[in-house]
Each structure stands twice: as C-alpha cells, then as structure tokens.
Amino acid sequence: MATILNSRLAKLRAIVIDDMRSMRENIRGQLGQLGIDQVDQAATPDDALKLILSKRYDVIVCDYNLNKQTNGQQLLEYLRSQGILPPTAMFFMVTAESSYGSVASAAEFQPDAYLVKPLTGGRIADRIERLLDKQQALNPITERLRKKDKTGAVAECETVQKQHPKWIVDILRIKGSTLLELGQVEEARAVYEQALAMRHDLVWAQLGIARCDQLSGKPAAAHALIEQILSKNTQFIAAYDLLAQLTEAEGKDQQALDALKKSYDVIPSARRSRLVGDAAYRTGDLLQARNAFAQAISHTQGSLTAQASDALSLAQIHVDLHEAAKALEVLNVAVSTHQDDPHFAAGQAAIAAQAFAQLNDLRSAQAAFESAKALNGDARPDQQTLTLAKAAFAAGLLEEGVRIMSKAIKADHENVRLVTSARKVLSDTGNAALIQSVVEDAISESALIVDQATQLMRDGQFDASLAKLEEAMNATPENTGILLAAAQLHLLWMSQKGLDRDYVVRVNGYLAKLDTLMPNNERVAKMYRFLRETLVKASREV
C-alpha cells in the first residue's frame, strides 16, 4: 500500500505556508518522505498568493497564525472567494489549537482538513490519501460541474452514489445544491430529507431545506428552521447569511444587519466586515458602516488581499458624515495600493468630487467629476454608477446627475438594492423632490415595455412582442426585468405552439445571465421549472 500511495503522491505539487522557517522545513521534509518532492515554501500570505497565482498546486499546507494582518483562514477565504484555487486543490489548515476547528468549521470557506500540531507524516498521508480517493470517486460529477453541465452532474450523482456509497454524504450535498441552482426546489428538498434520514445532525441539510422554503415562497417556514438551527449551533455562519437574505427581502434591514454582525462575531474577517458595512450603510447607520469598513482595511492592510472597494466605501462614508478632509486622506493613502485598478480610479474621482464640493472647491469638484465620468465609461449600473451621479449633484451638475441616475434605473429597474440606493442618493443630496420624476418614472418606463410586450403576446403578435423586448435588451442588456420577460415570452410561446430548439437555447441563455445577475432568485428558479415543464409537455406531444 505504501508503494501505491507514494506513487500517487509523487505526482503532486505542494506549497507550505508558515511564518516560521523551522516549521516550513519540517513539513517540507515530511512531505518529501511521502514522495512529494515538488514543494515550494512561503513565509507570508503575499508570498503564498504570488506563488499560487503563478503555479498550480495540488496540496496547500497553511499555518493558521501567519501575521497580524492576514491569518490562514482569511487567506483561504480570499483564495476561494476569488476563484483562485482549482476544485481539486487540497487545503490543509495547521493549528496548535485543537478547539480551533470547531469554530472555523462554521465559516463558509472551509479547509479540506485541520491538522493539529505536532504534525506527523503518517497523519498527513492519511488525509491526502482519503481526499485523493474521494476526488477520484467524485470526478465524474466534478467534471460535469466544471463544464457547467448541472443537469449532467445531477445524473452523475445518482450513478456515483451506487458505485461509491462510501461518499454518499458528500454526493448528497453536491446534488442538493446543484438541484437548487437548477431551480428544482422540491427535488432538492427530497435530497436534503434523505440526508437527514441518514443523520439528523447534518446542519447543511437542515439549512438546505430552509433554502427550499425560501425559494418556494415560504419565508415563515424558512425563518422557523433557521432559528431552530441557530438555537443549537450559534456559530453556523451560513444560517446567519440566509437569515440576512430573508429579512432584507422583507425590508427588515436592521434585522439583516443584526444577523451579519453576529456572523462577524463568529468569524471576524475582511469579507464579514464588508457585509456588515454594506448592511449598516443601507440602514443609515453610518458610524457602524465606518467602523466595519475600517476593520476590513485593517484585516488586509499591507496585503495583496486588500480590496479597493473597502477604501472607496470608507471614503464615501466620511463624505456622508461631512468629513471631507478624512475622505480625501483615505483616498490618498489608498492610491499607492490600488493605483493600477481602473475601478478604484473611477470611484476615487467620484468621491473626491463630493469631498471637494463640501470644501467649497467647486472647480476641483467639477474637474474630478469629469475625470470620474470618463473613467466610468459604460460600466454596468451598480453602486459606483450612483456614486458618479452623487458626484454630479455635489458638483452642481443637476441635469448630468439626473441623466446618469435615470439611465442606471432603466438599465436594471427591478434591482431592489439599486433602486433603494438611488432614492437614498437623491435624499442625501437634497434632491428628494426628484425621486418621483427620476426613479419612479424610470421604473415605470421600463415596466411599461414589459407590459406592452406581454399584451402583444396575448394578442397573438409574438414577433412584435419579441422585437420590443429585443430592442430593450440591446439598450439595457443586463436589465433583469427585461430578461425575465423575454424568457417568459418564449416559454409561453412554446407552451402554446410546441417545442422550438432555438427558443430553448435563447431561454437557457437568458436564465444563465440571470443566474449571474441575481443568484438564487426565486423568480429565476420558477423560470427554470417552467422551462422543464414546457420541455416535458412538448416531448409528450411529439
């Protein structure tokens, strides 16, 4: 067995991340004894990130305590959230604290295994061998997922489950989440119930059922199940996240903020700070938002994991608190770190315009706005677009601000956060009287296009209906309301006229884009179900 194991391990490339040279050398030696002789070393998170970006590693052994700015958990979080690690990479977290795993296992980005010091080659080998066995068994599923073939992945789950029942829990977890992504809510529910029948303490399966309730339009049931989960496990991060989603959707922003603050208490990371900061900003709690983004910057200070959005958010909050000089100071400090980031440059100029206006330097404010406008280009409507509109209002360019905001709303009139933020920008800049004429009218104009297209469809004028929606999509290609209407229009046509392969391709394209723009959305899930039902009905009639 040892020979077979060493033969497998000899093909692997590893990296050891530890700030202590003696520990790096020790682990490198143990890996070498197992047959892994391609081993790189990194003393800091930045050194590790540079190597991981330049090479493909199969095994990453990382100490939890790295430096004051970034620990091993935060590095893992960054690597996974940015999609830097390949799915097959094995990430081992090394810690001297045997209790650490019970806390960190609550995080949404988890290592493949925790290794408690002192390490031994045998324990490392056992973990690697088990993970390689699992990877090999689940490879048909992961290959389907890699190719974005989610339906095929679900089918492979059933095949692999019969061939490798040892990994049934992992298979059910993948199958359940993939079914949810496909919008097959009741099928996913059945998978989660199957998992709980095997082991009643599988928290991820309990949370999966709560997600099913959410997507089925049963928020009260989802709430009750989440509260039940948290009453038994107050450190389960994903439960707080789902609770925040539910309460925000209900317009209960303060409750959403409270849920995210509790999640930060469990895992105090830069990402958690950002979530708290965004939620606090939406509720109008600027002091809480300022503290949260200052924490995010502190978590990543001097590291490659630093994100420009943290500095921009903090600077904007200083402006909103009428602390213009502090806003400019934050931007000036951040320039050296993010000077090559075009998004930072555009945001920096827009926020600087507002700060200069507060300091009564209108010439500098207008010059900064023009720079921001040029840098922003045709970016998709988001918070940065609204920041640009806010800069225009601050610089005294009312018509320009109205034009920018109106265009952003028309481009994505069903984006609740965007619309809410737009109303807030107008109120904050003393233009609350324009909310009706700018925001509400822009929403009405976009909604009217959908209504007209729907009416044309009802009147049997499919081509005219499609032409109206295609014209709107050409003007606003990421308008979620228009995309949903286009998908529905094609599905209605096929439900009445029969299967059309070209239309199926179009609908899949619309829904794929919607999945990116509004992940885990209930309406998108219903569209997927409608598509499946349409295909089943059409196939029966053939």
UniProtKB/TrEMBL annotation:
> What is the superkingdom listed in this entry's lineage?
Bacteria
Residues bearing 4-aspartylphosphate?
63
Q: Which residues form the Response regulatory domain?
A: 13-132
| One BP term from GO | phosphorelay signal transduction system
Task: Give yes or no: UniProt keyword Phosphoprotein.
Answer: yes
User: Which InterPro entries would you find in this protein's record?
Assistant: CheY-like_superfamily, Sig_transdc_resp-reg_receiver, ST_Response_Regulator, TPR-like_helical_dom_sf, TPR_rpt
List the transmembrane segments.
none
Q: What keywords appear on the UniProt entry?
A: Phosphoprotein
Q: State whether keyword Phosphoprotein applies.
A: yes
The record's annotation in PANTHER family points to: TWO-COMPONENT RESPONSE REGULATOR, TWO-COMPONENT RESPONSE REGULATOR ARR22
Q: What is this protein called?
A: Response regulator
